[in-house]
Design brief:
Length: 107
């Protein structure tokens, strides 16, 4: 098998272009994480930024702030998990189904 550095460079440039396109598409991706039967909802962008937090009045109990904190944490974890899955799917389409290296998405 002959090694062609020009072909390798062409493939790397093609992959870089596809990655840039995927990053742009991810800016449009959102996911909603929920907890407590939808009492807390967090909308997160493909860039892992929290865009919106919705809290049902039923979740607000001044005598149990800890429960609300747990619900918010759980909804954030759910949203993060869903976004990471969407990112993985998007990157898989770029890499032709090749698995991403462990830890590339921070997990």
């Amino acid at each position: 098998m002959n090694f062609n550095p020009m072909e390798l460079l062409k493939n790397v440039q093609n992959l870089q272009s596809k990655m840039s396109e995927a990053q742009e598409r991810l800016k449009q991706v959102t996911a909603v994480g929920t907890s407590g039967g939808d009492m807390v909802r967090i909308t997160m962008s493909g860039e892992l930024e929290v865009q919106k937090v919705e809290i049902s009045p039923d979740a607000v109990d001044p005598n149990d702030v800890e429960m609300l904190q747990d619900l918010i944490r759980a909804a954030h974890t759910d949203a993060t998990s869903k976004i990471k899955e969407k990112i993985k799917e998007e990157m898989s389409s770029v890499t032709g189904g090749m698995d991403l290296p462990p830890g590339i998405l921070g997990s």
